[in-house]
Amino acid sequence: MVEIGTGTGVSGLWLLRGMRADGVLTTVDIEAEHQRLAKETFGEAGVPANRARTIAGAGLDVLPRLTDGHYDMVFCDGDKREYAEYLSEALRLLRPGGVVAFDNALWHDKVADPAQRDEETVAIRDLGRSIADNDSLVSVLLPVGDGLVCAKKIWSPEA
């Protein structure tokens, strides 16, 4: 799995708990302090060091260096203004049947309000349209917390 936006490691810990025992999480964050805190969180939870690879850097700088078609899931909780580019990278990184998920899909209940025009809200709104219009994805919007949109990459012989 790939996670964009490590934070303190809480979401990464849940991702690790849902993976096979030999699964590896690659988590990316621009803040080195977030990486340090996540390593601490993983260690305190008893996660072996070889199961979590932390990479300090901007998501759009790191993602192009990751292997095409190698991942089962990409979880995005980074810069909301970059969500469209994260989707493009995720589609390249995911195996057929893989899932891309975006946190904050409802963005403080602002996404459904067309009067809300701030940069983050517009970016998330546009992401939703892009996912819905993409014939290679089957998606669902979960109205939990601040919203989570998940999209499965459909298997096709051309993929």
Description:
This protein is an alpha/beta fold. The chain has one domain (2-153): Rossmann fold. 32% of the residues lie in helices and 26% in strands. The protein has helices at 10-17, 32-44, 59-62, 83-93, 119-133; strands at 2-4, 25-29, 52-56, 71-76, 94-103, 137-142, 148-153. A seven-stranded mixed sheet has the order 3-2-1-4-5-7-6, sandwiched between helices. The mean pLDDT is 96.
Please give the alpha-carbon distance between the first and last residues.
Answer: 19 Å
How many domains would you count in the coordinates?
1
Q: Segments where pLDDT lies below 50 for 5+ residues?
A: none
C-alpha Rg, in Å? 15 Å
Q: What percent of residues adopt helix (DSSP H or I)?
A: 25-40%
Brief rundown of the structure:
This protein has 159 residues and is an alpha/beta fold.
Write the layout of secondary structure elements.
Layout: E1 2-4, H1 10-17, E2 25-29, H2 32-44, E3 52-56, H3 59-62, E4 71-76, H4 83-93, E5 94-103, H5 119-133, E6 137-142, E7 148-153
Parallel strand pairs: 1-2, 1-4, 2-3, 4-5
Antiparallel strand pairs: 5-7, 6-7
Fill in the keyword field for this structure.
159 residues, alpha/beta, Rossmann fold, 7-stranded mixed β-sheet, 32% helix
